[in-house]
Design goal:
Distance between the termini: 25 Å
Order of helices and strands: EEHHEHHH
Strand order of the largest sheet: 1-2-3
Shape: globular
Number of domains: 1
Largest sheet: 3 strands, antiparallel
């Protein structure tokens, strides 16, 4: 089965600044298809080359790119209320500053071509243990 069509193929990404936390904020991605990888790579290449004019356009490219394939997040809490922040991939810019999004998260997305065997097993166990 192609990895893109496997509903259990999930990739958990934790920012470097959160990796030592007991329950780190985690971004959950699905496997990307080739067209999506091309969009991510093109945005990354464009940002690295400086071909995007203006800071607003650069920010749009960063946040649009890190939203590709984003399926969920865990352990994201509003700093004012302490309440969980409901998942909405279009709100990723409310969670991350541009450095975290472009340097840390985008780099990890590019490095996580496919879930590891252990990631896939963990995902299968989570799906099997969920009520429903």
């Amino acid at each position: 089965m192609p990895i893109y069509t496997d509903p259990n193929a999930r990739i958990d990404i934790v920012l470097d600044s959160d990796k030592d936390k007991e329950n780190p904020p985690t971004f959950v991605y699905r496997a990307l298809n080739g067209r999506e990888w091309r969009k991510v790579a093109e945005a990354f290449d464009t940002l690295q080359s400086g071909k995007v004019d203006g800071m607003a356009a650069q920010l749009d490219a960063i946040y649009t790119t890190v939203a590709i394939g984003l399926m969920d997040w865990r352990n994201m809490f509003d700093p004012e209320t302490g309440e969980p922040i409901p998942f909405n991939k279009n709100d990723v810019d409310l969670l991350l500053n541009p450095i975290e999004a472009s340097t840390d998260l985008m780099g990890k997305i590019l490095g996580a071509v496919t879930p590891t065997h252990d990631d896939k097993k963990k995902s299968e166990l989570q799906v099997a243990s969920e009520p429903g």
